[in-house]
Design brief:
This protein is α+β, with helices and mostly antiparallel strands. The protein folds into four domains: about 90 residues, Rossmann fold (3-Layer(aba) Sandwich); about 55 residues, Dna Ligase, domain 1, CATH 3.30.1490; about 130 residues, 2-Layer Sandwich (D-amino Acid Aminotransferase, Chain A, domain 1); about 100 residues, Alpha-Beta Complex (Glycinamide Ribonucleotide Synthetase, Chain A, domain 4). The chain has 15 helices and 22 strands. Strand 19 and strand 20 form a beta hairpin. The structure holds adenosine monophosphate and glycine.
């Protein structure tokens, strides 16, 4: 079978490599891809990158299964474009993807159906938002309604910061049209956890819990990024809490979407805050998480192609329970220094050949490119190194041991991935 992985990050590289392990898969195509995916899979030359061009390619090439990584393609309706040509694809329709592409949609859905989420109001006028913020006090959270590539949320500690965030977001200066409407939300205290679930419209199969590290700096300091590292499992989310999350959040959310006349298929990602009052939804995403996927897939023993086909064909209920490696996995992301702000790129990456020989170590390329036969940095989050270990400490030691072999001129990575489990002592 030929499969297509849409996207160009570490998440998609991890998906592509896992699919290559499947006896069902003969060829993996990746688009747009990166240097790592170009080594492992095929990158097609296409006339455009819009959803119809991708669907045309899949139809002409005889692709039997497509999996979409990034939310942008899902919000543009890639699943609708493929399905209208009877092509098999994993992901939510454009209507279902609103759970991520519009925070207002997600909040109103949760409010209407009693799914636990922070108190909020929606605004498109500065003065009204200002009055609400003054009434609520700080800390408070300002969120752009639309997709903003991780830059749409400001957690404001003081009123001045909150009002400035409202002003620049509503005016379009911060994230363009995505910020013409905002959600102003109550601040929640606690640690975050990502619960991803596979959905085929009828059945919901949660994956193992994982935890991302969104802030750029050690100790969760500094601005938020796309994610600087992840680990799985998350000991604080035991079996009982997983059940509770399933019963009080995942299943009610799917039921709510279906009641709105929308069928949800693909991956539903619940970003949760574990508060003193229980798990509360921070956000939903309509896809696999990045870098959560890079900490989950090394642990997945079930054939990923089988799993994805079962989602696409609506037969998740007949799939045997997913099999997981009991070992832990830690993923550390290496970024270009300066990210998420301005940063230089184009630096050669060395040491990857050493990592290839290290057992239980996985390298997932993000922003990498090929230049004259050499792999060079091409953006903010350059690559991730994941490692399996007998426990989280073992996995983390191995991931950092591997990362120490990677060199590029302005390499930066956090030294404290999994600190909530292991404490604040930093890795070397
Ligand atoms: P979101 O895109 O909604 O997930 O927000 C990005 C990040 O901002 C989250 O991962 C949290 O770290 C933080 N955040 C969002 N909403 C809240 C909230 N209500 N309380 C505290 N932190 C939040
Ligand atoms: N890890 C955060 C995200 O995928 O949105």
């Amino acid at each position: 079978m030929q499969v297509l992985v849409v996207g160009s990050g570490g998440r998609e590289h991890a998906i592509a490599l896992k699919l290559l392990e499947s006896p069902k898969v003969d060829v993996v195509w990746c688009y747009p891809g990166n240097a790592g995916m170009a080594q492992a899979a095929r990158i097609p030359k296409l006339a455009g990158s819009d959803v119809n061009t991708l669907a045309e390619f899949a139809a002409t090439e005889g692709i039997e299964l497509t999996i979409v990584g990034p939310e942008g393609y899902l919000a543009e309706g890639i699943v609708d474009a493929f399905r209208s040509r009877d092509l098999c694809i994993v992901g939510p329709s454009q209507a279902a993807a609103q759970i991520e592409s519009s925070k207002v949609f997600a909040k109103r859905l949760m409010e209407k159906y009693g799914i636990p989420t922070a108190a909020y109001r929606v605004f498109s006028e500065y003065q009204e938002a200002k009055a609400y913020i003054e009434e609520m006090g700080v800390p408070i959270v300002i969120k752009a309604d639309g997709l903003a590539a991780g830059k749409g949320v400001v957690v404001a500690e003081d009123v001045e910061t909150a009002l400035e965030a409202v002003r620049v977001t509503l005016s379009g200066q911060r994230v363009g049209e995505a910020g013409r409407r905002i959600v102003v939300e109550e601040f929640m205290e606690g640690q975050e956890v990502s619960i991803l679930a596979l959905c085929d419209g009828k059945t919901c199969v949660p994956l193992m819990p994982s935890q991302d590290h969104k802030a750029v700096g050690d100790g969760d300091q500094g601005p938020n990024t796309g994610g600087m590292g992840a680990y799985s499992p998350v000991p604080v989310v035991d079996e009982i809490l997983q059940q509770e999350i399933c019963q009080s959040i995942l299943l009610p959310t799917l039921k709510a979407i279906h009641k709105e006349g929308i069928v949800y298929t693909g991956v539903l990602y619940a970003g949760l805050m574990l508060t003193a009052a229980g798990p509360i939804v921070v956000e939903f995403n309509c896809r696999f998480g990045d870098p959560e996927t890079q900490a989950l897939l090394p642990r997945l023993k079930t054939d990923l192609a089988e799993v994805l086909l079962a989602i696409a064909q609506g037969r998740l209920s007949s799939l045997p329970p997913l099999e997981w490696d009991p070992r832990a996995c830690v993923c550390v992301i290496a970024a270009s220094h300066g990210y998420p702000g301005p940063h230089e790129t184009g630096f050669p990456i060395r040491g990857l050949d050493v990592l290839e020989k290290m057992p239980d170590v996985f390298v997932y390329h993000g922003a990498t490119a090929l230049r004259g036969g050499e792999i060079v940095t091409a953006g903010g989050r350059v690559l991730g190194v994941s490692a399996l270990g007998d426990d989280i400490q073992g996995a983390r030691d191995r991931a950092y041991e591997a990362m120490a072999q990677v060199e590029f001129e302005n390499i930066y990575y956090r030294r404290d991935i999994a600190w909530r489990v292991l404490g604040t002592e930093k890795a070397n």
